[in-house]
Amino acid sequence: MAGRPEPGSMNLGQRFFANKWWGGISLIILCLAFYLIPNIQLPLTRAEAMYALIPQEMLNSGQWLTPTLNGALYLDKPPLLYWLNLLVYKIFGASAGVARLSTLAFTLGEVWITYFIGLRLVGPRAAWLGGFILLSSIGFFAHHFQILTDHLVTLALAASLYFLLRWQEQPSRRWAALFYLSLVVGFLSKGFIGLLFPILIGALYAWQQRQPRLITLFCSPWGLALAVTLVLPWFVLAEQAHPGFLKHHIINEQVLRFLGERHPPDINPFPIPGFWLFLGIWLMPWTVLLPEALYRFWRETGLGLRVHNQGRLLLIWPAVIMVFFTLSTSRIEYYSLPALAPLALVLGWRTDQYLQTGKGRSFFWGLLLIALLGLGVLFLLPYLEQLCAGNRREFIGMFTLIKPVARQATFWIPALALLGVWLGRKRPWLTVTSYGALALVCIFFTFQTLNLLAPMLSDNLPGKYLRTQAGAEDLVVMEAIEEFEYGASLAFYSDRRILMVQRDGLPQFPYPVPPAEDYIISPDRLKQLWQGPRRVFLLLDDATPPEPYLKDALVALTVTGKRLLMNRP
């Protein structure tokens, strides 16, 4: 076996990968270059704005224990993300750009920890390639401009598995403590899956490794005591302040949500084929290499040829995530995000092998497949819109808006893919460079798409209008909204409490709300307010047909996909 090259005999590439810190720092720099400006520019969407509004209300009220959303008690989610954003607000002030600083930190953390897991399992260059594949994949890019608890639980999961690997190599209280701290972060970010995923993945990994001593890490008395000490006070204080909290948070939001029996039923689950399809979409353009990469990685970790069988962790990890949500009846397209990091490392390993040997027909055929998919973008997007709109109505009309970007994609993606086929016939590094160029072009088009969809997915423009034009006595109402959380974007940007109209039983609070905090009104009440003495602003989506008495209403503002109406000047 050849020894490690002496520093003086290494070329530039070898010296780069010989120092683990250079690789990690370069990935952080790339991540900042791709993610910093979009995080600041893109407005808060309806799906994420609650994580900006809740800590703002907690800061204004001085209540760190009691989250409120639009002035009403909100007990659905664990508090860690609220607390982190609250601290950021105290330092930098509350604004949309500041609200996303925590998400940017989670993004950097996910890429960093993925790289360091890769160093231990697949080697330096493969780890770097895996980190680049992760940060340049469409799904990772698109979702890391949103404030989601999923990013924090994904980071906590990756960190817990990294500390599990370190404890496996060198059992010590330091690694055990960090492992349990990761579990606490995961639990306080998204509930019991923050515990379930790392423990289940770790247990299957221990079984595969035939190392039952790894199970002792999960049963450490002092580690469990540390976790209980950090978590139990929040449970006790929250239940004392709000009797019934434990039942709602554990039974309704954890158990019944998994079983699809949550009250109220505010989630239309993605169909299983669509859920798996979106995993492939999130990893584009690298997805075309995944089937062969998974097969080779599974075979060679079993044989222990080019990679130690510890690498099987990278197969167990995504399998647990995907199987869990396949079995769950509460399934959303982005719930597969925690599976992207290990799959990216497998793809990084396969790409590294291809660069070493030059053998890999899948890279050639993959470029041809990408060219074909690029030509079919305009044909495929309407079906994706139909699939997404079946889960959330905010995607209705998406294809019409992004058609200009789709037309550009149908030219540039096939052109770059075919150029890669021609240039990389006998030069593997040019083939891999072509995939990297395609990834950058894809995330550019993704950013353009998000810009075009922003007026439809966010209420920043109506909110800013209301902040300057609505008086203190004026009422602001949202019409046709299935989840009351989706009103947070308008409330955040308008800096005022809003009302929401309930139709077909939605939106609906999952627990009793005092009349003073209740902001859900009936259609009849809306009509009374509209015809009453106070000025009323009504935000109405274009996909919702207006009531007859609204047809001649004054239009205060028109933006993509919605109108802001008012009953009097």
Molecular structure report:
The protein has 569 residues and is mainly alpha-helical. The chain has a domain at 460-566. It contains 25 helices and eight strands. The chain has helices spanning 12-18, 20-41, 50-61, 80-92, 96-99, 101-121, 124-135, 138-143, 149-169, 173-190, 193-209, 215-218, 221-241, 245-259, 272-282, 290-303, 313-327, 340-357, 361-375, 377-389, 398-423, 428-457, 460-469, 488-494, 523-530; strands at residues 68-69, 72-73, 475-478, 499-501, 520-521, 536-541, 554-559, 562-566. A six-stranded mixed sheet has the order 5-4-3-6-8-7. Strands 1-2 form a two-stranded antiparallel sheet. The radius of gyration is 25 Å and the shape is globular. The N and C termini lie far apart (83 Å).
What labels would you give this structure?
569 residues; mainly alpha; six-stranded mixed β-sheet; two-stranded antiparallel sheet; 25 helices; 8 strands; 63% helix; globular
Low-confidence stretches: none
Number of strands: 8
Provide the residue-averaged pLDDT: 89
Main sheet strand line-up: 5-4-3-6-8-7
Structural class: mainly alpha
Task: Report the helical percentage.
Answer: 55-70%
Ends apart, CA distance between termini: 83 Å
The major β-sheet equals:
6 strands, mixed
Radius of gyration over alpha carbons? Answer: 25 Å
**Discrete helix count:** 25
Classify the beta-strand content into a percent band. Answer: 5-15%
Shape: globular
